[in-house]
Amino acid sequence: MSADVIIIGAGIVGAACAYELARLGTTVLVLDARLGSATNAGMGHLVLMDDNPAELTLSNESLATWREWAPRMGADCGFNHCGTLWVAADEEEMSAAEEKSARLKAHGVPCQLLDARALAAAEPALRPGLTGALKVGTDSMVYAPNAARWLLAQAPKMITVEAQTVTAIEGTCVRLADGSQRSAGAVLLAAGIHSTKFCPELPIRPKKGHIAITDRYPGMISHQLVELGYIKSSHHSTGSSVAFNVQPRPTGQLMIGSSRQFDTTDPAIEPDMLARMLRRTVDYLPGLNDLTVIRSWTGFRAATPDSLPLIGRHPEREGLWLAAGHEGLGATTAPGTARLLAAQMTGSVPPFDSAPYLPIRFLAA
Ligand SMILES: Cc1cc2nc3c(=O)[nH]c(=O)nc-3n(C[C@H](O)[C@H](O)[C@H](O)COP(=O)(O)OP(=O)(O)OC[C@H]3O[C@@H](n4cnc5c(N)ncnc54)[C@H](O)[C@@H]3O)c2cc1C
Which residues pair with 112 in a beta bridge? Predict the structure, then answer.
């Protein structure tokens, strides 16, 4: 039986799209070669970002869906409603926290400013002398690879998954590395940074990141801790940057991010970059000096020029749809992406305005 839609890519975005299409009555064939995915490499911080109204809407809508899914997901998905503390190191960053608080509250998102004393009480392991923080309680974390597997397993009659490498897309037919082909009514490309192999015209650039994880130290911190400077560094479009960003895993481990580098596709760990990232972390969390880091790795985010994903019809290729370019926010925004995409593909009413994310903003019709 041929499916209504073929999805290339079973990362968190492809999996969420498969789930949502199946929910709307569409049969789906998901093809994934496990070539190496951002979903396996990421931190899984489900975080409200508000650098522009479209990012705020997409992340806020997505977080609401994650909270809906959470009670049904197994413990192995590691969903934890930890909240985020955006840490301000000085008065300038505290002003940024106040502005962020005003923007979030105007959007109906509950959040709370903490002064230095309240921050120290909330997270005693942080260094003394910090100015304060903004607490966003609606944020969470998830183990995204298992969440993707959970999504793909939700509708066994509607979703089929095959471990296949796609070599070419020809209309609504895809060619596979084993010489066979599959066809469907439509093809959805959700292959992260690999999407440019099939569509070199997509404005997606790989943005490398390093992550490290410690041994188990339960209770050291309880929120995801991110420096407010992260907002500036995460949007650099050249060079490299690091920011303090630490997550308390349910296992008691600390997951440490984050670095950002353009102009490299080499997955090797770069000791200098890792050291820079760890020094930044120790600056905020001095106790880290006494902990053991047991593993580190790298991954690539799929960055677009305006930091928004490409969600919708490919304007130049009949039957081809896109869900790619989620940069450092794809675990967070997979559910909203899926709802927008599935609504467009099935002709139902999108849950919110899809215009800011349409691929046509970069690709001429
Ligand atoms: C270091 C790092 C930290 C991050 N931290 C966070 C975070 O805290 N919060 C957050 O929200 N996001 C985070 N992200 C971003 C997030 O991980 C990504 O945006 C998200 O995983 C993208 O999912 P995806 O499904 O689009 O792509 P991917 O996960 O890359 O999946 C694409 C899939 O396509 C498959 N594929 C590719 N080519 C083919 C082919 N030819 N045939 C068949 N299959 C193919 C691959 O095997 C892969 O499984 C982070 C990313 C990195 C790198």
Answer: 135
